[in-house]
Amino acid sequence: MARSFLYAWEGLVYAWRVQRNFRLEAYLGLLALLLALWLGVDPVPVLLLIALVLSLELLNTALEALTDLASPVYHPLAKRAKDTAAAAVFLASLLALSIGLHLFLPPLLRKLGLI
Ligand SMILES: Nc1ncnc2c1ncn2[C@@H]1O[C@H](COP(=O)(O)OP(=O)(O)OP(=O)(O)O)[C@@H](O)[C@H]1O
Q1: Could you tell me the distance, in angstroms and rounded to a whole number, from the CA of residue 79 to the centre of ligand 1?
Q2: Which of 34, 53, 61, 92 is the residue whose CA sits 20 to 30 A from 45?
Protein backbone atom coordinates (compact mmCIF):
# COMPACT_ATOMS: atom_id res chain seq x y z
CA MET A 1 0.00 0.00 0.00
CA ALA A 2 2.68 2.50 1.06
CA ARG A 3 4.70 1.38 -1.95
CA SER A 4 1.78 2.24 -4.31
CA PHE A 5 1.65 5.73 -2.85
CA LEU A 6 5.40 6.05 -3.37
CA TYR A 7 5.08 5.11 -7.06
CA ALA A 8 2.16 7.52 -7.50
CA TRP A 9 4.25 10.22 -5.81
CA GLU A 10 7.13 9.48 -8.22
CA GLY A 11 4.70 9.90 -11.13
CA LEU A 12 3.53 13.21 -9.73
CA VAL A 13 7.10 14.45 -9.25
CA TYR A 14 7.98 13.35 -12.81
CA ALA A 15 4.99 15.20 -14.30
CA TRP A 16 5.83 18.29 -12.25
CA ARG A 17 9.46 18.22 -13.42
CA VAL A 18 8.97 17.57 -17.13
CA GLN A 19 5.53 18.99 -17.95
CA ARG A 20 5.43 22.78 -18.08
CA ASN A 21 1.66 22.58 -18.74
CA PHE A 22 1.12 20.53 -15.57
CA ARG A 23 2.94 23.17 -13.49
CA LEU A 24 1.02 25.98 -15.19
CA GLU A 25 -2.33 24.26 -14.61
CA ALA A 26 -1.42 23.57 -10.95
CA TYR A 27 -0.52 27.26 -10.40
CA LEU A 28 -3.73 28.40 -12.13
CA GLY A 29 -5.72 25.95 -9.97
CA LEU A 30 -4.14 27.35 -6.81
CA LEU A 31 -4.93 30.87 -7.99
CA ALA A 32 -8.57 29.86 -8.66
CA LEU A 33 -8.81 28.30 -5.19
CA LEU A 34 -7.46 31.42 -3.49
CA LEU A 35 -9.82 33.56 -5.57
CA ALA A 36 -12.77 31.35 -4.52
CA LEU A 37 -11.84 31.76 -0.84
CA TRP A 38 -11.41 35.53 -1.22
CA LEU A 39 -14.74 35.93 -3.04
CA GLY A 40 -16.66 33.53 -0.78
CA VAL A 41 -17.38 31.17 -3.70
CA ASP A 42 -18.01 27.46 -2.91
CA PRO A 43 -14.54 25.87 -3.33
CA VAL A 44 -15.92 22.34 -4.00
CA PRO A 45 -16.63 22.78 -7.76
CA VAL A 46 -13.29 24.57 -8.08
CA LEU A 47 -11.49 21.63 -6.44
CA LEU A 48 -13.35 19.16 -8.69
CA LEU A 49 -12.34 21.08 -11.83
CA ILE A 50 -8.72 21.31 -10.66
CA ALA A 51 -8.71 17.55 -10.06
CA LEU A 52 -10.26 16.92 -13.49
CA VAL A 53 -7.73 19.03 -15.40
CA LEU A 54 -4.67 17.82 -13.46
CA SER A 55 -5.73 14.17 -13.67
CA LEU A 56 -6.24 14.39 -17.42
CA GLU A 57 -2.87 16.12 -17.78
CA LEU A 58 -1.27 13.24 -15.85
CA LEU A 59 -2.98 10.70 -18.14
CA ASN A 60 -1.85 12.73 -21.16
CA THR A 61 1.72 12.62 -19.85
CA ALA A 62 1.48 8.85 -19.33
CA LEU A 63 0.10 8.39 -22.84
CA GLU A 64 2.87 10.53 -24.33
CA ALA A 65 5.48 8.37 -22.64
CA LEU A 66 3.80 5.17 -23.87
CA THR A 67 3.48 6.57 -27.39
CA ASP A 68 7.16 7.53 -27.46
CA LEU A 69 8.02 4.02 -26.25
CA ALA A 70 5.83 2.33 -28.87
CA SER A 71 6.66 4.69 -31.71
CA PRO A 72 9.86 6.74 -31.31
CA VAL A 73 9.68 7.66 -35.00
CA TYR A 74 6.79 9.40 -36.74
CA HIS A 75 3.67 7.30 -37.17
CA PRO A 76 0.16 8.56 -38.01
CA LEU A 77 -1.35 6.42 -35.20
CA ALA A 78 1.11 7.88 -32.68
CA LYS A 79 0.06 11.33 -33.83
CA ARG A 80 -3.61 10.37 -33.40
CA ALA A 81 -2.98 9.03 -29.87
CA LYS A 82 -1.06 12.13 -28.74
CA ASP A 83 -3.41 14.63 -30.38
CA THR A 84 -6.52 12.94 -28.94
CA ALA A 85 -5.06 12.83 -25.42
CA ALA A 86 -4.11 16.50 -25.74
CA ALA A 87 -7.68 17.25 -26.90
CA ALA A 88 -9.04 15.72 -23.65
CA VAL A 89 -6.94 18.17 -21.60
CA PHE A 90 -7.97 21.02 -23.87
CA LEU A 91 -11.70 20.24 -23.48
CA ALA A 92 -11.42 19.95 -19.69
CA SER A 93 -9.48 23.24 -19.53
CA LEU A 94 -12.13 24.94 -21.64
CA LEU A 95 -14.83 23.60 -19.32
CA ALA A 96 -12.86 24.77 -16.25
CA LEU A 97 -12.44 28.23 -17.79
CA SER A 98 -16.15 28.54 -18.65
CA ILE A 99 -17.35 27.37 -15.23
CA GLY A 100 -14.68 29.53 -13.57
CA LEU A 101 -15.97 32.63 -15.37
CA HIS A 102 -19.56 31.68 -14.48
CA LEU A 103 -18.64 31.24 -10.79
CA PHE A 104 -16.21 34.12 -10.34
CA LEU A 105 -17.35 36.93 -12.58
CA PRO A 106 -20.52 38.07 -10.71
CA PRO A 107 -18.93 38.11 -7.20
CA LEU A 108 -15.73 39.66 -8.58
CA LEU A 109 -17.61 42.49 -10.30
CA ARG A 110 -19.63 43.02 -7.09
CA LYS A 111 -16.46 43.10 -5.00
CA LEU A 112 -14.94 45.68 -7.35
CA GLY A 113 -18.16 47.72 -7.17
CA LEU A 114 -18.77 47.45 -10.89
CA ILE A 115 -22.33 46.06 -10.56
N1 LIG B 1 5.91 9.61 -32.78
C2 LIG B 1 5.11 10.53 -33.32
N3 LIG B 1 4.45 10.25 -34.46
C4 LIG B 1 3.62 11.16 -35.02
N5 LIG B 1 3.37 12.38 -34.51
C6 LIG B 1 4.00 12.72 -33.37
C7 LIG B 1 4.90 11.83 -32.72
N8 LIG B 1 5.37 12.45 -31.60
C9 LIG B 1 4.78 13.65 -31.57
N10 LIG B 1 3.95 13.84 -32.61
C11 LIG B 1 3.14 15.04 -32.91
O12 LIG B 1 3.73 16.16 -32.31
C13 LIG B 1 2.82 16.71 -31.33
C14 LIG B 1 3.62 17.15 -30.12
O15 LIG B 1 4.19 16.00 -29.54
P16 LIG B 1 5.01 16.05 -28.19
O17 LIG B 1 5.52 14.69 -27.89
O18 LIG B 1 6.02 17.13 -28.25
O19 LIG B 1 3.90 16.38 -27.15
P20 LIG B 1 3.35 17.76 -26.66
O21 LIG B 1 1.87 17.75 -26.95
O22 LIG B 1 4.15 18.87 -27.20
O23 LIG B 1 3.53 17.61 -25.15
P24 LIG B 1 4.65 18.20 -24.22
O25 LIG B 1 4.96 19.60 -24.66
O26 LIG B 1 3.93 18.15 -22.92
O27 LIG B 1 5.79 17.22 -24.32
C28 LIG B 1 1.83 15.59 -31.03
O29 LIG B 1 0.58 16.10 -30.58
C30 LIG B 1 1.72 14.91 -32.38
O31 LIG B 1 0.84 15.64 -33.23
Answers
A1: 7
A2: 61
